[in-house]
Amino acid sequence: MADVVSKQKKAFLRKLYLAHLIDNERHNLLSLNKLTGMPRRTLQDAIAALADLGIECHFVQDGERHNAGYYQISTWGPISSSWVCTHLDDLLKQLN
User: Fold this and answer.
1) What does pTM read for this prediction?
2) How large is the angle between the packed helices 7-24 and 88-95, nearest 10 degrees?
3) How many CB atoms lie within 10 A of CB 76?
């Protein structure tokens, strides 16, 4: 029997994955949606919940339009970004 990943663990791993993407490249909701296939609302909820993990993420306004800009991680808090990077393949397998 295959290992079943709980809903809570998937939500945690999703946040780590999104933080990794945001930390390594400039992303907004549209680019994250295209890259991950996650619905816009799921992305918004996950990004907003990064603070629950101690990850500080904010939106950098870059242009005149309200939604023109990108997300940026200011600190990973207690989470090791290098651990996430090292274990990214395993993390992605558990999300699928």
Assistant:
1) 0.90
2) 130
3) 21
Q: Which sign, positive or negative, has the C-alpha torsion 43, 46, 51, 55?
A: negative
Q: Which of 79, 77, 81 is nearest to 21 (CA)?
A: 81
Q: Which residue has the tokens 């558990």?
A: 94
Give the integer Cα–Cα distance in Å for 56 and 49.
10
**Could you give the CA distance from residue 44 to residue 79 in angstroms, rounded to a whole number?**
20
Helix (H, G, I), strand (E, B) or coil at 53: helix
Per-residue pLDDT of the chain (96 residues; tens, 9 = 90+): 457 889 999 999 999 999 999 999 999 999 999 999 999 999 999 999 999 999 999 999 987 777 789 999 999 999 999 999 999 999 999 988
Lookup result for tokens 């946040």: 15
